């Protein structure tokens, strides 16, 4: 049966950090097994892998059952020992016979592993594995706190309110004061985010997608970091139009619309409008679906198959655009797979077996290599996903080439946005941890000719909305200092330290519960082109740098 072989191949790929389980399973359409069954098996086996790898190793079956690979033994032992239905194979099937004749040894080792972890029952161990936010007792008896990525949920202000959801969907949830206390043994617990309005967090494995509020678009699954761009943009209904330049799948687009909608009802604003551009046809369909579910049809105008860089800034409609949200394609290096989050896949090793007998070298079947599909493909399977992580690059030269190509495109997007004549604010974001796509792009944009011509500068920290001003992780100062000479050459008054402090970062898999993310804002205070006295230094203030500094900056260029 292909289920266990395919599951083994997926776990092999996941253990090499080539993508989240969800992208590996649902990003491919040629599986012989049912995708939901395949995902359930791989995600459960991944959660239990730390225990099961130990069980498989100590049982010694990898030495006696030569046809089993480590990952195949892992998924088979999961169903044999932990699944209510057992191994999903006929009793006389070769794999079933192989794993079943080792059931006594495997069961014995599972009991030992449970006792070593301080649990009296298998249900107690299961609860700890399913809720790793709680403290788990290690073999030494020490309490080891485990931090797990929460499930972030944005209350959609177009259709509902936080107060209403707390009284309905989350009425039986217990509010906690910190992410670290999100579970604490209480599965139905909820955390109200202090930085982003209408954002809450719940335990990752809570099945909120079955709720009526989720199905009707009142609740939207969106990582906290992904909410930063729209909130930082601070769109105002009485100013003009907003453009989301790279809109699919639509979470940030509908967030902008929700902010405008809420402010219009509170401030009696007359002008509402978001223009959502998406050049990819398939992703345009996903965008349309998300906008409809969120109830944003009357606010959002979707420009399907529209390349933002080909929009004419001098057109009549472009003249009404005052804010732009830019979240272009990036390396995805900051993405946390929503399905496995902080779970690492632990694979058993035959060499770690208690058996002292040396086995002969043997060939093992090599599970097919799994390559995650493109961002466009994966988004069709689950429109709640933002982006998927790009495959890990083993070759540093290839990685740098890809980052260079991405950063060139990202800079072009910003420069085009800066050319819109009525624009006042821009936010630029990536789900990347690489400075080449983040601080470096921001520095180049500030030093560009269009920024000088139109009077664009960095949105300083003291100019940011309250939640973003209070956010504690800022840009990388060292990455900005590397480009100090380009600031001086462009006569920019803001120094590297000021720009780094203006940039916002989120760390991947930190105690903040976010993915890796970067966002920066640009503002244009000048009423007329070229009126940017406070932006640039006077010519005599320009600082000359020696050849060494120029050489250092050369590595920063595309």
TrEMBL record:
The keyword Methyltransferase applies. Residues 141-525 form the SAM-dependent MTase RsmB/NOP-type domain. Residues 375-385, 546-558 have a biased composition (Acidic residues). Residues 348-394, 530-558 are annotated as: Disordered. GO terms for cellular component: nucleolus. It holds the Pfam family NSUN5_N. S-adenosyl-L-methionine binds at residues 246-252, 278, 307, 327. The active site is at 431 (nucleophile). Residues 349-358 have a biased composition (Low complexity). GO terms for molecular function: RNA binding; RNA methyltransferase activity. Residues 533-545 have a biased composition (Basic and acidic residues). InterPro entries: MeTrfase_RsmB-F_NOP2_cat (IPR049560), MeTrfase_RsmB-F_NOP2_dom (IPR001678), NSUN5_7_fdxn-like (IPR049561), NSUN5_RCM1_N (IPR048889), RCMT (IPR023267), SAM-dependent_MTases_sf (IPR029063). Keywords: Methyltransferase, RNA-binding, S-adenosyl-L-methionine, Transferase. This is 25S rRNA (Cytosine-C(5))-methyltransferase rcm1. One of its GO terms (biological process) is rRNA base methylation. PANTHER family: 28S RRNA (CYTOSINE-C(5))-METHYLTRANSFERASE, NOP2 YEAST -RELATED NOL1/NOP2/FMU SUN DOMAIN-CONTAINING.
């Amino acid at each position: 049966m292909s289920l266990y072989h395919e599951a083994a191949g997926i776990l092999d790929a996941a253990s090499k950090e080539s993508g989240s389980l969800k992208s590996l399973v649902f990003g491919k359409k040629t599986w012989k097994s049912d995708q939901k069954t395949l995902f359930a098996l791989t995600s459960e086996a991944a959660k239990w892998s730390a225990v099961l790898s130990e069980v498989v190793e100590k049982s010694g079956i990898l030495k006696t059952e030569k046809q089993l690979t480590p990952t195949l033994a892992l998924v088979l032992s999961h169903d044999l020992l932990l699944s209510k239905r057992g191994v999903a194979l006929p009793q006389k099937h070769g794999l079933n016979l192989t794993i079943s004749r080792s059931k006594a040894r495997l069961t014995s080792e599972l009991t030992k592993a449970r006792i070593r972890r301080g649990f009296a029952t298998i249900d107690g161990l299961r609860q700890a594995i399913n809720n790793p936010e709680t403290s788990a007792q290690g073999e030494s008896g020490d309490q080891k706190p485990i931090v797990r990525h929460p499930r972030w949920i944005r209350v959609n202000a177009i259709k509902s309110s936080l107060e209403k959801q707390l009284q309905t969907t989350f009425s039986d949830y217990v509010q906690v004061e910190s992410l670290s206390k999100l579970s604490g043994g209480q599965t139905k617990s909820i955390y109200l985010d202090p930085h982003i309005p209408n954002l809450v967090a719940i335990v990752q494995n809570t099945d909120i997608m079955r709720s009526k509020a989720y199905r009707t678009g009142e609740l939207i699954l969106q990582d906290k970091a992904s909410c930063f761009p729209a909130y930082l943009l601070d769109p105002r209904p009485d100013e003009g139009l907003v453009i989301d330049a790279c809109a699919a799948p639509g979470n940030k687009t509908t967030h902008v619309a929700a902010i405008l909608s809420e402010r219009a009802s509170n401030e009696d604003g007359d002008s509402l409008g978001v223009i959502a551009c998406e050049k990819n046809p398939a992703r345009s369909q996903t965008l349309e679906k998300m906008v409809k579910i969120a109830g944003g049809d009357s606010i959002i105008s979707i420009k399907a198959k529209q390349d933002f860089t080909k929009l004419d800034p001098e057109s009549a409609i472009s003249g009404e655009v005052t804010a732009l949200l830019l979240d272009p394609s990036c390396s995805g290096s900051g993405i946390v797979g929503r399905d496995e989050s902080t779970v690492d896949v632990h694979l058993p090793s035959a060499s770690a077996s208690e058996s002292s007998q040396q086995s002969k070298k043997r060939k093992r079947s090599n599970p097919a290599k799994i390559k995650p599909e493109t961002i466009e493909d994966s988004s069709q399977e689950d429109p709640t996903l933002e982006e998927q992580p790009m495959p890990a690059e083993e070759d540093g030269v290839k990685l740098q080439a890809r980052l260079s190509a991405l950063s060139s495109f990202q800079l072009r997007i910003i420069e085009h946005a800066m050319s819109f004549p009525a624009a006042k604010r821009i936010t630029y974001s990536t789900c990347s941890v690489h400075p080449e796509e983040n601080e470096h792009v921001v520095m180049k944009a500030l030093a560009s000719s269009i920024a000088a011509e139109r009077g664009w500068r960095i949105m300083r920290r003291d100019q940011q909305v309250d939640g973003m001003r209070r956010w504690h992780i800022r840009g990388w100062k060292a990455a900005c200092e590397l480009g100090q000479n380009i600031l001086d050459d462009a006569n920019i008054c803001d120094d590297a330290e000021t720009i780094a402090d203006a940039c916002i970062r989120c760390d991947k898999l930190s105690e903040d519960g976010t993915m890796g993310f970067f966002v920066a804002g640009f503002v244009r205070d000048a009423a007329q082109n070229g009126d940017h006295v406070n932006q640039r230094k006077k010519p005599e203030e320009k600082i000359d740098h020696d050849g060494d500094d120029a050489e250092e900056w050369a590595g920063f260029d595309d």
